[in-house]
Amino acid sequence: MPKKNDIVRLTIERCGLAGEGISHLDGQVVFVSGGIPGEVCDVQLLKVGKTAIWGRVHALVDGSPARVAADCPYYPKCGGCQFRHMRYSAELETKRRRVEDALRRIGGVDLPVSEILGAENTLRYRNKVQLPVAPGPRIGFFRARSHDVVNVEDCLLQPETASALRRAVLAWMLEWGVPAYEEETHTGLLRHLYLRFSRTQVLCCLVVNSAKPLPGEEALVSALRAAAPGLAGVAVSVNQERTNVVLGRELRSLWGHPWLDDTLCGLTFRISVPSFYQVNRDQAEVLYEQALAFAGLTGHELVLDLYCGIGTISLVMARRAGKVIGAEIVPSAVTDAKANAARNGITNADFLCGDAGTAAQHLAMQGLRPDVICVDPPRKGLSAEVCDAIADMAPARVVYVSCDPATLARDVRRLHESGYRPEKAVAVDMFPRTAHVETVVLLQREAG
C-alpha cells in the first residue's frame, strides 16, 4: 500500500489536463508534477487518495530528450507555467495529442487534430496581468493548487513594464503603510494589481477591499506614471466580497481613462477594465483567422456569433459575411461591441443582449435562420439548452472555438447527436509554456 513520501519508480505514460505527467501504481492513477511522457522517474508521493495519487519527480532514471533546464527562477514554485522544463516543439505535440485524445475519449469521435499552430514568440506575450497581493507584502502569483502567493519580481510571460509597475506599487505600500489583503481574515486593503496592455499603452487597476480613498493617491499616480511612460490610466476596483473573483462591481478612475484602444486583425477595439479580450494578441489573430476559414464565408451568409463579448470575432467575420448578429449576456460587453462596430465603420453587424435562446427568438421573429453559428464559450462550455437551440436553428455549419478540450469534446458529442458531423479540428497555442490550449472545430449539418 503506497504511503505519503514513499519514493517509487514509475514510467510517465502521457500528460494530463494540467500538464502533469500521468502514470499508474497498483491500479491507481498517479499525477506526477514535472514528468514528461516516456521518462522513467523516481517519484516522491505527496498525497495518496482513494482513487488517485499525486507526486513529483524526485530523480530522473531515464530522462526524455524533450527535457530542458527551466529558464525561470520561480519555476515550478509559481503555478503560472507548466512546461518550462520541456522543449517547445514537444509542448506543442503534447497539447495537440491532448485535444485529439479528449475528442476520442469524451467526444466519441475519431477526429484528427490536423495541426497545432504554435507561437512565434513564447516570451512576454500576455496583455493582461493579474497579480495577487499577500502580507509581507508579496506581489506575484499563486503557488500551484493553492492561494499561497509566490513573490515574483519578474515574469517571463508578462511585459517588462508589468515588473516596473509592480515595484512602484510595492514601494508605495511600504512608504504609506498600505496593508495587503489577508484572505483568511478578510482584512487588509490591496487585493490584486490588475494590468492591461495595448500595443502602445498600459492601464493599471488596483483591486481593494475598501471604498475609502487610498492612502497617498497622488503619490501613487506619480510613481506609476514614472514607472510606465505609456500609462493611459489608473483606476481602483472595489471588491469587498469573500470571493475568488478578482474585480469588484465598483470602479473609479484616479487618473487618465479606464480603457485602452488596441488593434486586432486590422480592426480597432476599445477594451475596458472588465472586458474579455484574448491575452495573446498575435495568437488571437491566428485563432480568428482559423475560425474565419472554417466558417467558409462568401459574402452572403447570415452569421450568429454566440458569446461575442466586445465583438472581436463578430467584426472579423462581418468583413466576409452578408450580416453578423452577435449575442452576449453581459450588458457592458454588448455596449462595447456596438461601439466597436461604429468605430470600425462596420454596418452589417448587430448585437443583442441575451443567450442562445434569446438569439433564436430574435431571428425567428424576423423570419431568419443563420447559415453559420460561431461559439466561443467560457471554459465550462455550452449548456445542453444552448446545444439544443443551435440544433433548432439548423445552420449549415457550426464553428466552435474552445479553451477547454474536455468541455469541447462533451459538446461535440452533443452536437453530433443532434445531427452535426465534426469535420475538422485545429489547435492553436494561445498560452505558450502553460497547459492551456485553444481549439477550433468545424461541424457540418448532416443531410436529412
From TrEMBL:
Residues 1-59 form the TRAM domain. The keyword Methyltransferase applies. GO terms for biological process: rRNA base methylation. Keywords: Methyltransferase, S-adenosyl-L-methionine, Transferase. It holds the Pfam family tRNA_U5-meth_tr. SUPFAM superfamilies: Nucleic acid-binding proteins (SSF50249), S-adenosyl-L-methionine-dependent methyltransferases (SSF53335). The active site is at C403 (nucleophile), C403. S-adenosyl-L-methionine binds at Q278, Y307, E328, D376. One of its GO terms (molecular function) is rRNA (uridine-C5-)-methyltransferase activity. InterPro entries: MeTrfase_TrmA_AS, NA-bd_OB-fold, SAM-dependent_MTases_sf, TRAM_dom, U5_MeTrfase_fam. NCBIfam families: rumA (TIGR00479). Belongs to the class I-like SAM-binding methyltransferase superfamily. RNA M5U methyltransferase family. This is RNA methyltransferase, TrmA family.
